[in-house]
Amino acid sequence: MDYDVIILGGGIVGCAVSYELSKYNLNIALIEKDYDIADDVAFINSSVVYDGLECEDTLLAKLELMGNKLMPELASKFDIGFKKKGYLLVANSEKSEKKLIGVYDRALKRGIENIYLLDAPDIHEVEPNLSKNARKAIYSKNTGIISPYDLAISYGEIAFDNGVNFKLGEEVLDIKNISKGFKVVTNKNKFTCNMVLNTTPAENYSIDSKNKINRDRKYMKYFLLGENTKRDYKNIVSMMEENNEKIYTMPTIKNGLLIGIGNHKKVSYEKAFQRIKCFMKDISEEDVEEFYESLFYNDSLIIDDSLVDKGYIKVIGKHYGQITAASVIATIVCETIVNNLNCILKKDFVDRRREFYRFRDLSNESRKKIIKLNKNYGRIICYCEKVTEGEIIDAIRRPLGARTIEGIKRRTGAGFGNCNGSQCICSIASILSREINKDMTYIVKDSKNSNIVKGRIKEFDEM
Ligand SMILES: Cc1cc2nc3c(=O)[nH]c(=O)nc-3n(C[C@H](O)[C@H](O)[C@H](O)COP(=O)(O)OP(=O)(O)OC[C@H]3O[C@@H](n4cnc5c(N)ncnc54)[C@H](O)[C@@H]3O)c2cc1C
């Protein structure tokens, strides 16, 4: 057998499972079709750490609550951004007030603590900037925000350092049952293994049976207000859904404010903006720093182990709380695999990320010290986010290092600022090209065919 376990998909769930399994004496590979792990996690570097309050599915609510409790410890172990933020679920009408009380009673039955039912005056004490039509709200003190890329990349880096073989840019075409174990066929290779964990959305492999899950998707529009916005919300605020419309806002890890609005039908930018004006009165278009569109997933989530006796497990469905639940999903899947393969814990597992520096967060004293050691930390490449050449080189040279412009952006923050990378993208591409010893025309933004430079304008034989 080539491997004991092959994990398909390098999203947050695949990475979390690879981390958990790398604690055991197993030979593991993770196959991801994109050039980087965690390519599909939310594009803004902030995700809500939910507590199961709003979640319709009871099992997923439980996973969210368990994941919520683990998050502060994980964030501190991996040294990643996590901020505790309250959550206000607000009802503006009589109809939604009734629904809200139902959600509150359900949450109490689920054993969720630190939640409070508030009337109008108390709501404005908790969130003074909220529009005055709020009638009732549930206030949760359990929630927070986290940097989802940092979480996924931390899982990936530690798993890599502990021996997991990451195969990036390789697409799985089929999984076949063989006499003992599986054959995983990719666009580049054929691998045999004892067990497969499939976290990809593909459902047409030879091994797959059709699973019926409820799929619920909304077309969301996101407006990002910058750090200096006057409309400062302390909490994550979500409106009780009416007519299937979802509106929520959350402070981002970088002190901005993200407002999301969506429905089952697509609406225009103008209509969406008018709707958020009802929610946040005095917002103007000048406040919007960036605008995004994305699907919002509210599928039911299944860990399908019906073929576990053969060695196949599949995580099916996409959900808006999956970042929160990933650590718990990983523990469950890992336990199942470990029991099946009868393996033991490694003695030399290192549960630590290699050190890194964030120039923008350092004191001048520490900056001077590190520049003395490595002068690349004294050269700013991204002026908006104060990211140095030293950090970019480290992001490329680290375990599971970045090989794309987006990968560098996620790891360092370079290009996340006001100019959206227009000032620094060429310098970053040139550093990447130098570090991996490839021509500039080879460098991609993110996926295949997203080359930064299409070709040379002129070729000179001699000057
Ligand atoms: C707009 C938005 C906001 C969100 N906000 C939050 C939030 O606030 N809080 C929260 O907890 N969660 C949030 N989520 C949820 C979360 O980001 C995603 O649900 C989660 O990242 C899904 O992780 P995954 O590993 O299950 O799937 P994915 O990230 O989809 O991973 C699957 C991987 O498989 C790869 N793949 C697919 N096909 C193949 C193939 N044939 N061969 C090899 N690889 C393949 C894909 O490239 C992908 O990397 C949000 C999601 C979205 C879209």
UniProtKB/TrEMBL annotation:
Protein name: Hydroxyglutarate oxidase
InterPro entries given in the database record: BFD-like_2Fe2S-bd_dom, BFD-like_2Fe2S-bd_dom_sf, FAD-dep_OxRdtase, FAD/NAD-bd_sf, G3P_Oxidase/Oxidoreductase
Domain FAD dependent oxidoreductase: 4-271
Domain BFD-like [2Fe-2S]-binding: 380-433
Upper taxonomic lineage: Bacteria, Bacillati, Bacillota, Clostridia, Eubacteriales
Stored Gene3D superfamilies: BFD-like [2Fe-2S]-binding domain, D-Amino Acid Oxidase, subunit A, domain 2, FAD/NAD(P)-binding domain
Alphabetical list of Pfam families matching this protein: DAO, Fer2_BFD
